[in-house]
């Protein structure tokens, strides 16, 4: 970037020299008047250097011309009294033309330029301040430009972002897929990912600048994440001094109080940026039913009814720091911490019927408690080169750790033909990761070349115990047959080469990544092991073409991999419900996805973004449910049993109906072909999936803004043999600036016309059907207060390259 700026400066100075020479030769009317001013960006107020300024006469002839200095200032001396037409032109900004009758020395003060909605490398999809921008390999959603962000959490804003939907349990899906990676400020955080939904639900959207959806990740990223990468940008811009935001919010009857904020400060060559927050989420008591019908030689029907409530407390903190030793050496680092405490209470009555009598019955009380604590820290050392300013060598190290504990107490009463005593379950899960990485970047004319090597040393383990109540001793005794200790060591070694070519109207990204994975799983309780070793070559390419009529085309192909994480590998068996068991599979192998994409965008009054996508994969790891008639237990686990393909389209439309009213539509449509084997039988689970978010935005005088949203989501697969029901929802919000650009107040109501929603999940197999129906709170109210302090302009100096571990799926 510095090389390009240097070249641009030379060109502009040369043009200035020619213009000044021409004006001296052509000038016939001299004087002694002075005209000066300063040019700045209208949004950031940054001073703009090397901006061309022309003084034209009434005939349109250029009398004088010049460019601004590095501080954005300009000055013309020895001007004759006359009327001048001032023309200010800058790449990426709208031209500014105005007239001035110069009769005395004049100071124009600060003249601001508005950014143009399209540039050589990006196409904006919104007109004024672009909310959506498209690059060859990603979509960028500017949360700071969306007034609804002032009253919502990050999770609540996700449905407005292209390619992203939320299912009935507020789980994020990217292109209909739950396999993706999340980065915070371009960097991974294993501790954040382990508690993603809770953190995003507690994180105020007002503290986020933008969210990037990287649908064709370049080869510099790890190959993990079948659907792509979601990058959440929180870093604020500053110069010497400080700036920050504060948010306080409350929602009810679902939800609770929360607070969050961000802070950035710079002093000389040292910069620090931080974001933090905490929340309490209450889910009041609701009811549920769980039923199962079997079709074997002795058919049965199971009916479970009950009630449950939950509470979750979450807190998080993240910070980035940098110190510029000199112009060629930079040290930067990050620290992320988070923790949560969750409690869940459930009461349940269960009855199993044969034909035609009751064969089994019991009542159950289940208390679950869980804690999660995680953290990661990284340091990067960047070296520049005098000969080529954009040539960089970076060395990075990162440590990540996470601790999860879950405990469940199950009490059985009123048993009929059910001899299982009361029991407790506890699972201690630990995760540790060390990463070493080296990256090299260098430009060669129009090509930017990147290369790197990386090693990840990862260890995760689980120690779970099942303890049965001993009526003789009055104690809970460990049942070794139902307990296990498990350790998984996973080492990933990779190298990549990436090329970025920027031409006049073309932007091409191409590269290849090579990854070697070595896994060893130790089952300590049974003294057995499982070894895996696999090698992958993962190419990616994306091409963007900007057309002359403010439209653009892009194409791409990538291969992505999904390695099973500890949540899928963990052999811990969750027996919270005795008739339904859930466990992991330590023998899972990775999945490889091939993805082809094409897109079109237009930045006219009607802003339009259309994407097409086709993907396919084999050996897919899917949730598989099997019913055992001997024990009357349905067990759900993961198996490499499936193959799938999908074809779909993404649509984003925005239209300014008037100065105060804007409408937008974000939609996804995809048809999924999914098949696998369950209990020796081939199962098909094909379906059409879609989601649409229709938003109406009103911006009035005196700082008022109102939004009305309609969200429609179809059913979604929950594994090889299941799917959840669809739903539609409404949301209304209003916010008011109490102090301009400082203090704001917002209120929000979700689904005011519907108090509850039936959340339905169906599971089917060759010899059974299951139906789970939970009656959940749907109507909710929220209020928030947002405060911004400081007012600064530069950014945190960060290493151009740092560790980004994106290679594990849970």
TrEMBL record:
Which residue ranges does the record assign to the Outer membrane protein beta-barrel domain? 389-787
**Protein name, per record:** Outer membrane receptor protein involved in Fe transport
Q: Does the keyword Transmembrane apply?
A: no
Enumerate the SUPFAM superfamilies for this protein.
Carboxypeptidase regulatory domain-like (SSF49464), Porins (SSF56935)
Question: Which interval of the chain is the signal sequence?
Answer: 1-26
The entry's localization annotation reads: Cell outer membrane
Chief localization: membrane
Instruction: Supply the PANTHER family for this chain.
Output: PLUG DOMAIN-CONTAINING PROTEIN, TONB-DEPENDENT RECEPTOR-LIKE BETA-BARREL DOMAIN-CONTAINING PROTEIN
Q: Does the keyword Isomerase apply?
A: no
């Amino acid at each position: 970037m510095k090389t390009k700026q240097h070249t641009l400066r030379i060109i502009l100075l040369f043009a200035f020299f020619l213009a000044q020479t021409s004006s001296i030769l052509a000038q016939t009317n001299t004087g002694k008047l002075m005209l000066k001013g300063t040019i700045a960006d209208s949004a950031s107020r940054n001073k703009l250097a090397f901006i061309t300024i022309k003084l034209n006469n009434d005939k349109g002839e250029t009398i004088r011309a010049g460019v601004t200095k590095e501080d954005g200032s300009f000055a013309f001396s020895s001007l004759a009294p006359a009327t001048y037409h001032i023309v200010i032109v800058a790449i990426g900004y709208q031209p500014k033309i105005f007239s001035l009758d110069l009769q005395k020395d004049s100071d124009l003060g600060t003249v601001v330029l508005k950014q143009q909605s399209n540039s050589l490398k990006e196409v904006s999809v919104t007109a004024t301040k672009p909310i959506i921008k498209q690059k060859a390999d990603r979509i960028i959603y500017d949360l700071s430009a969306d007034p609804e962000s002032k009253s919502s959490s990050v999770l609540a804003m996700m449905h407005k972002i292209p390619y992203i939907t939320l299912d009935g349990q507020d789980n994020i899906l990217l292109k209909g897929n739950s396999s993706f990676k999340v980065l915070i400020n371009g960097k991974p955080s294993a501790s954040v990912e382990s508690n993603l939904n809770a953190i995003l639900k507690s994180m105020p959207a007002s503290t986020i600048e933008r969210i990037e959806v990287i649908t064709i990740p370049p080869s510099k990223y790890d190959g993990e994440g079948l659907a792509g990468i979601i990058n959440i940008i929180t870093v604020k811009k500053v110069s010497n001094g400080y700036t920050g935001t504060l948010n306080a919010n409350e929602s009810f009857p679902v939800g609770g109080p929360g607070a969050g904020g961000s802070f950035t400060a710079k002093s000389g060559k040292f910069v620090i940026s931080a974001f933090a927050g905490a929340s309490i989420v209450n889910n009041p008591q609701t009811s549920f039913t769980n039923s199962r019908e079997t079709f074997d030689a002795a058919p049965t029907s199971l009916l479970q009814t009950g009630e449950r409530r939950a509470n979750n407390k979450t807190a998080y903190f993240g910070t980035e720091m940098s110190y510029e030793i000199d112009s060629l050496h930079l040290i930067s680092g990050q620290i992320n911490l988070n923790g949560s405490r969750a409690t869940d209470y459930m009461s349940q009555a269960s009855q199993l019927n044969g034909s035609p009598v009751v064969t089994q019955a019991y009542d159950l009380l289940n208390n679950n408690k869980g804690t999660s604590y995680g953290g990661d820290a990284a340091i990067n050392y960047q070296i520049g080169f005098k000969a080529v300013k954009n040539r960089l060598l970076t060395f990075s190290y990162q440590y990540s750790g996470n601790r999860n504990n879950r405990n469940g107490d199950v009490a059985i009463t009123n048993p009929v033909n059910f001899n299982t005593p009361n029991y407790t379950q506890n699972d201690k899960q630990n995760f540790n990761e060390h990463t070493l990485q080296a990256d090299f970047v260098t430009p060669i004319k129009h090509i930017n070349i990147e290369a790197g090597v990386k090693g990840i040393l990862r260890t995760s383990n689980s120690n779970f115990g099942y303890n049965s109540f001993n009526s003789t001793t009055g104690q809970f005794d460990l049942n070794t047959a139902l307990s296990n200790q498990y350790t998984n060591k996973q080492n990933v070694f990779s190298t990549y080469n990436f090329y970025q070519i920027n031409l006049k109207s073309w932007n091409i990204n191409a590269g290849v990544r090579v990854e070697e994975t070595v896994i060893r799983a130790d089952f300590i309780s049974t003294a057995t092991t499982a070894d895996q070793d696999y090698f992958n070559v993962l190419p990616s390419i994306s091409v963007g073409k900007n057309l002359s009529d403010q439209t653009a085309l892009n194409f791409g192909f990538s291969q992505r991999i999904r390695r099973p994480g500890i949540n899928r590998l963990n052999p811990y068996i969750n027996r919270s419900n005795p008739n339904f068991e859930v466990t992991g599979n330590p023998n899972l192998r990775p999945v490889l996805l091939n993805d082809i994409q094409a897109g079109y965008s237009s930045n006219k009054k009607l802003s339009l973004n259309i994407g097409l996508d086709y993907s396919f994969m084999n050996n897919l790891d899917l949730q598989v449910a099997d019913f055992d008639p001997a024990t009357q237990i349905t067990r759900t686990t993961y198996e490499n049993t499936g193959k799938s393909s999908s074809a779909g389209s993404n649509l984003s439309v925005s239209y300014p109906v008037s100065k105060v009213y804007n409408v937008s539509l974000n939609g996804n449509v995809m048809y999924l072909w999914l098949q696998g084997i369950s209990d020796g039988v081939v199962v098909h689970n094909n379906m059409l999936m879609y989601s649409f978010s229709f938003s109406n935005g009103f911006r009035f005088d005196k700082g008022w803004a109102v939004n009305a949203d309609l969200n429609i989501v179809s059913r979604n697969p929950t594994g090889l043999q299941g799917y959840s029901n669809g739903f539609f929802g409404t949301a209304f919000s209003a916010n008011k600036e109490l102090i301009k650009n400082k203090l704001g107040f917002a209120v929000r109501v979700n689904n005011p016309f519907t108090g509850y929603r039936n959340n339905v999940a169906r599971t089917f197999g060759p010899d059974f059907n299951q139906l789970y129906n939970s009656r959940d709170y749907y109507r909710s109210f929220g209020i928030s207060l947002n405060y911004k302090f400081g007012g600064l302009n530069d950014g945190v100096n960060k290493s151009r390259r740092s560790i980004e571990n994106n290679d594990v799926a849970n």
